[in-house]
Amino acid sequence: MPALVIVGAQWGDEGKGKATDLLGSSVDYVVKFNGGNNAGHTVVIGDQKYALHLLPSGILTPGCVPVIGNGVVVDPSVLIEELDGLEARGVDTSALLISANAHLIPPYNRVLDKVAERFLGSRKLGTTGRGIGPTYADKMNRVGIRVQDLYDESILRQKVEAALEMKNQVLLKIYNRRAVETEEIMEELLRHAERIRPMVADTSLVLNQALDAGRTVLFEAGQATLLDVDHGTYPFVTSSNAVSAGACTGSGVAPTRIDRVIGILKAYSTRVGEGPFPTELDDDNGDFLRRQGAEFGTTTGRPRRCGWVDAVVGRYAQRVNGVTDFVITKLDVLTGLDTVPICVGYDIFGTRHDEMPVNQSDFHHATPIYEYLPGWSEDISGCQHFDQLPRAAQNYLLRLEELIGARISVVGVGPGREATISRHHLLDPAPAQPGQRAG
Ligand code: GDP
Ligand code: IMO
Ligand code: MG
């Protein structure tokens, strides 16, 4: 089972970090292929808690090579800060590889991200303010700055000058901010260049050679399906491809080499930032989920919006990612509820929709249609096998599995590595059976 992709099936924060960490010891490479330090992954190992933003979660596994692919946007100072933070805690980060083609987040893009949001006022997207959107826009506009540019100073200066010609106009004339000097940007970008140099590699070549040699490579998505710039709730999305296909463009490994796609689906839903969210709860149940699930952002500390699980979203994620196996996380958070609702469709202006509506405006008006399943009150955090779960929890999972169209292979019952129920090993060669859809 050489190449696997882990993707978020909802709006992010599903527990991708924990899932990557769980597989870490069985894989040789963990590749981050999209996004940047807008991500926030919390990984709990024993009594230690790690919050990762830019680095792939595989960095915590000894012997595993962490890779930042070409599809990632890298803020060099955040990179160094995160590496130093881990080294200070005894984590060996020396194996990290960074694609020479990854784009850098220059300081002016952090400023532009924040001022653009302020400018939008009530129409804001609620970005993380890390400069992600402007940096991907620069990449597409062909005025971006890449990691490899750090090692050719005259090219770097030309690119910074060219970018600033336009950026300074925007900063001054639209946002009424001060202009930025080329030298100031050069200095900040080059500050860590020598430290980063040994990590820079042709990561596409490295990964393809690793696959040729039978090594196992895990691609770890940042963000999630409904935050994907093409398949998410545009414009309330991030600016990269967070779906499984992004693993290929974001790493230089072809689709024909991907063997399995693992969708991470939280047992309820959360969203940070603005945008449609049909099952959102503005009541005691929403507070219950936020409190029980500790739903506060790893990156920005913002309280996450909470709601019931949405099987339409899960099924959509199965389809656009080709999910072969689902990991259901945070089942323990639902313990104590009398009934556990699952959204099975939407009512949109009196018409029932069983799939995501084609029109985004309709999605904004979707009222969930729920199936109500009995809840459970037993503490499930120590369960190690599916059979040990209360019958009601088992039935909840089995119904969800029918609706989302791929088998549930792993269930999370707590934040730690050990709080995990495995039904099918994610690295098993046995092919998954997608298409179990019932709903
Ligand atoms: P990611 O961005 O997808 O990696 O997810 P985050 O790390 O932002 O958010 C998931 C949170 O849930 C983290 O604090 C995890 O430690 C925690 N977590 C993951 N799986 C479980 C689980 O099964 N149960 C509980 N209670 N917490 C979990
Ligand atoms: P992980 O990897 C949840 C959201 C932001 C905002 C929108 C655009 O931890 O799941 P951006 O700064 O990317 O331009 O913001 O996307 N967002 C996330 N929400 N989890 C994340 O990452 C996110 N990364 C971005 O809140 O709504
Ligand atoms: Mg997160």
Please characterize this protein's 3D structure.
This protein has 2 domains: 3-76 and 204-422, Adenylosuccinate Synthetase, subunit A, domain 3 (Adenylosuccinate Synthetase, Chain A, domain 3, Alpha-Beta Complex), CATH 3.90.170; 103-195, Adenylosuccinate Synthetase, subunit A, domain 2. Helices cover 31% and strands 20% of the residues. It contains 13 helices and 20 strands. The chain has helices at 16-24, 76-88, 107-120, 132-141, 153-174, 182-190, 193-196, 203-212, 246-249, 284-292, 311-321, 360-364, 391-404, and strands spanning 3-8, 29-32, 41-45, 48-52, 65-68, 73-74, 97-99, 103-104, 200-201, 217-220, 260-266, 269-271, 305-307, 309-310, 325-329, 339-348, 351-353, 367-374, 407-412, 420-422. The strands form 5 sheets. The chain has a 10-stranded mixed beta sheet, with helices on both faces. Strands 14, 16, 17 and 18 form a 4-stranded mixed beta sheet that branches. The chain has a two-stranded antiparallel ribbon with strand order 3-4. Helix 3 packs across helix 4 and helix 5 (153-174) packs across helix 6. The structure holds guanosine-5'-diphosphate (GDP), 6-O-phosphoryl inosine monophosphate (IMO) and magnesium ion (MG). The site of guanosine-5'-diphosphate has 22 residues, from helix 1 and strand 3. Magnesium ion is lined by residues 12-13, 39-41, 298.
